[in-house]
Write a structure and sequence with these properties.
This protein has 12 helices and 19 strands. It is of the alpha/beta class. It has a 7-stranded parallel beta sheet. A 5-stranded antiparallel beta sheet has the order 13-14-19-16-17. It has a 3-stranded antiparallel beta sheet with strand order 12-15-18, with no helix packed on it. Helix 3 links the parallel strand 4 and strand 5. 43% of the residues are buried.
Length: 356
Amino acid sequence: MQDPSEVVGGSLVGDAYRSIGVSATLGLWDDEEWVRRRDAVYSTGWAAYVSHGKVDAVLADPGRAKHFWGYLVADEPDMQKSAGGRLHPEFQPSAVLRVADEVRAKDPTRPTVVNFGAWMGTPWGRERYGHVEKTYEDDMRTYCAAADIASADHYGWTDLDTGSVGAFRYGEVIDTMRRWCGTDKPVFGFVETGHPYEDGGLITPDQVEAAVWNCVLHGADGINYFAHSFFPEGRGDFASAISRSDVAARLKAVNARLQAFAPVLNSPSVGGVRGEGDVPIAVLHKVVDGWHYVFVQADGDEARPGSARTKVTVTLPVRGGVAEVVDEGRGVAVVDGRLVDELSPYEVRVYRFPAE
């Protein structure tokens, strides 16, 4: 939800985000500023998922098709429908699905996107979800039917109301969304880059990186960054992903690594691997072109929300050999189907070895 025509740090927002590997903005609104923002998308070469109200405008300009990736149908409808303590019927599941179907009928070539909030995206969301249309379960599945790409924003490092914060919260959202959306629908992670609450914390670059990879290791198909910051004294920073130089530098590196691994990450996940350590270990296993890729992260959970340096034992589907540690210039021996290594807190390591 960035304005590509604004200037931050001497650069147009669209240029600045492209420079750190953020390929599109999610949300280009149908309001009086549409033309200015649209033209800035064009001039910076950026792309956008635009408001669902702009389908006709997108279709009327086929020469600019590359800039428009899809349509944002709704943002946090699960929470917005109860805003102010009253029902907003336009955010009921059936209403959101109806809008999505209308958009699809007009333009079947681009995906619909719906971003949800904590009432759908967290294990405890049922407790706060109001104005149930059918049942909680039916409502969540109907909501997800409206989305060709789904996401949910819960800021696991900076939302102090949960009682325990940590990188594991981001993968928890992906797991919850899979419950409602299934395994085949693209689900994107959501990671804050600043201070998303008037209270709460300011996320650090290390925490951003840990959160991104926790989404990925739990099967996220993409990453959204929430760049809005709010503070108790009322000031705001609405482009923290680029205005915070340390965060921008880290995002550039993280996004480049994600893109480098994209052919692997976009391949089907397979089983046969597990990790054990003094803290919970998240693993993701891919097989591409005759090679195994095993992504490992020292994670946390509700009982142990923090991470620590730990010795990790990874059980593999091969008996022996040497696993290359990607980007580290070293290998780790595989003995009796296991490799043993050490991970720093929240560190992500990638092991590569040939399929037998």
